[in-house]
Amino acid sequence: MRGTPQFNHKTCTGCGACSNVCPTRAIEIIDNYQSNKRKIRLWLGACIFCGNCRDFCPEHAIELTDKPVAPSPSKWIFEELETELAVCEKCDKLFSPSPLYEKVNELMLRDYQQRETFKKICERCKRLYYAKIYTKTLS
Ligand code: SF4
Ligand code: SF4
Questions:
Q1: Which ligand 1 atom sits closest to the C-alpha of 7?
Q2: I want to staple 67 with a disulfide (CB 3.0 to 4.6 A). Which of 4, 35, 87, 107 is the partner?
Q3: What is the pLDDT of residues 76-87, one digit of tens each?
Q4: Where are the alpha helices (DSSP H) in 34-122?
């Protein structure tokens, strides 16, 4: 039996993939730029227990439990988890959930033997950073 999806708060990186694949938009991503926090909110009333979120989560951080969901026509019930957003060291823009950045950093070091720590900078600043390096190499 498929029941309530449950997040693993320890392994979720806040990437948002589960929200993208949810056919009923039952998973909402809420970025708060004042508190530097991202919330992943699951609206249980909208969930049809298809299992997409579980199947596509790269961290295997979602389980479909056998907990039934009580119907709630007037007010949807929800569960949520919260994660920190990382701030770009160059332009101070919030750019990625911190656990996701840490994970990418770890994989880059492991799989690509990248010597320096993956720069904690947003996509735009990263492009500028590497463009400067390549320009110097070519000149
Ligand atoms: S790690 Fe899994 S549960 Fe967390 S946001 Fe990404 S897809 Fe969703
Ligand atoms: S089980 Fe399906 S409907 Fe429910 S939250 Fe996951 S993807 Fe959305």
A1: 3
A2: 4
A3: 778 889 999 999
A4: 52-56, 98-111
